[in-house]
Task: structure prediction
Amino acid sequence: MIKDITEWIAQLQQQTQAHQQTCEVLAPQLNGYFPADFLQQSRFMVVDNLPMPSLSGIKGVLAKRWLPKELSAIAYPGCYYILRSEQQNWSEHCRQLVHLAQLQHLGTEAYLTLLYQQVSEQGFEQASLIKMAGQVAQHFEQGSNLSNIPALIKQSLATAEA
Result:
């Protein structure tokens, strides 16, 4: 299933690349949480419907079982897609940038494998990758003074891997 998804992601990125925006346009709203170089290499796209792989058979059933029904954004390597209705939701942008940092550190296959494992065992909301993004978004909403979130994520993930 992971191989099918990574192939689909590569096709999606190729098809949507011309419509993606660099995240550096978000810098004024993100209060220094992410360094300029990270925002320059990260991209997002505002969409009416979130792009999801169409997996059939047992793979599709399993994937649908662990994804929540109401998503407002989804991150894939290098780019996240956010619903038009949420495009001014800066904490959602922050949450998705956390997922991009996780993907960057772990790599696509390891990230998807770990996420699937965590969601299967603990449920979507309790998966540590999801909780980590939610905690950063919560700090952002509260106006906490944090910076260089990608470095904090890398440190946190490296500690968890040890």
